[in-house]
């Protein structure tokens, strides 16, 4: 049985998230390191006003995830796999050992800034719950046009499918899905059409930037967003980080694969508990815990029953 570290993406953030991190030397050291890398006090990132900008949100998420994961590692907790959803993939890559925090934070900033400027208004995301992917795809294909594009986005669970594109098209897809029997179909609080081809230009900038970074072979296997497979080389992880913004996140495939490989304890780094909730619903025999709701000490004790290392 194996232990898995999960790192949430955008949407999990909340004001005060960095100030509320547990008191631990590894966490304080990471906050200090991040402040030096970014040439700012990173504790300023988690204010209500600061979290209105995409780059600040993603930086705060990355720093939070890396800090708490490092604290767990310092306490002897050894994950067999790491996986991050969307922006959370960058924190997962750091903990895998494939890339340093010093190289990662500028990439995260570039990603967030690119997302903000790509589509200033009129675009976003929605989520449909209660229909299968193929059912949502039929609706998307009927409504999508070049003038009003809409695409399948994140595949979080068999019946939880995100869409991205122009708001007019998104609203039509959501309304049609509700008529077709969806339990819920709503817009997400996102003003960027993430994880579809509309963000190819951002992906190209990331690919160029990653090309100048000396990445290392991971010490911990990393589950990739784009292919839904466990990646074990620096090149594959770099490719995943560069391209995941322009492709659907195959989270259902990622978590299922890790479970099939023996993952039985899923620890979600703060903030939020969406990923641990998805794992709990999908795998009756697995144990899940969100560090937002569980103390470091309790997580360490829990991990001792499940972790078999890498």
Describe this structure in words.
There is one protein chain. With 310 residues, the chain is an alpha/beta fold. Helices cover 44% and strands 16% of the residues. The protein is built from eleven helices and ten strands. The chain has helices at 25-38, 54-74, 88-96, 101-118, 133-143, 167-179, 200-210, 234-243, 251-260, 274-282, 296-306; strands spanning 2-7, 81-84, 123-129, 150-157, 160-166, 184-187, 222-223, 230-231, 263-268, 287-290. The strands form two sheets. It has a six-stranded mixed sheet with strand order 8-7-2-1-9-10, sandwiched between helices. Strands 4-5-3-6 form a four-stranded antiparallel sheet. Helix 4 runs antiparallel to helix 7 (200-210), helix 5 (133-143) packs across helix 6 and helix 7 (200-210) runs antiparallel to helix 8. The protein is globular. 52% of the residues are buried. The model has no long low-confidence stretch (mean pLDDT 95).
């Amino acid at each position: 049985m194996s232990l898995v570290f999960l790192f949430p993406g955008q949407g999990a953030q909340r004001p005060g998230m960095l100030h509320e991190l547990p008191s631990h030397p590894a966490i304080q050291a990471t906050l200090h390191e991040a402040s030096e890398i970014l040439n700012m006090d990173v504790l300023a990132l988690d204010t209500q006003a600061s979290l209105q900008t995409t780059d600040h949100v993603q930086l705060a998420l990355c720093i939070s995830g890396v800090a708490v994961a490092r604290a767990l590692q310092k306490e002897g907790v050894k994950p067999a796999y790491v996986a991050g959803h969307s922006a959370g993939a960058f924190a997962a890559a750091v903990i895998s050992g494939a890339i340093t925090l010093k190289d990662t934070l500028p990439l995260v900033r570039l990603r967030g800034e690119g997302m903000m400027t790509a589509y200033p208004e009129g675009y976003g995301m929605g989520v449909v719950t209660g229909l299968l992917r193929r059912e949502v795809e039929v609706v998307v294909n009927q409504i999508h046009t070049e003038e009003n594009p809409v695409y399948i986005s994140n595949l979080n669970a068999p019946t939880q499918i995100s869409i991205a594109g122009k708001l007019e098209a998104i609203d039509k897809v959501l309304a049609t899905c509700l008529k077709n029997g969806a339990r819920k179909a709503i817009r997400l609080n996102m003003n960027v059409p993430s994880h579809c081809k509309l963000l190819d230009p951002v992906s190209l900038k990331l690919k160029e930037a990653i090309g100048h970074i000396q990445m290392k072979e991971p010490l911990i296997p990393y589950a990739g967003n784009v292919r839904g497979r466990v990646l074990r080389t620096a090149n594959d992880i770099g490719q995943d980080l560069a391209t995941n913004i322009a492709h659907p996140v195959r989270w259902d495939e990622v978590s299922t694969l890790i479970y099939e490989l023996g993952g039985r304890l899923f620890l979600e780094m703060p903030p939020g508990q969406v990923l641990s909730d998805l794992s709990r619903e999908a795998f009756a025999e697995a144990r899940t815990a969100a560090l937002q709701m569980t103390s470091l000490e309790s997580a360490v004790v829990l991990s001792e029953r499940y972790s078999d290392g890498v």
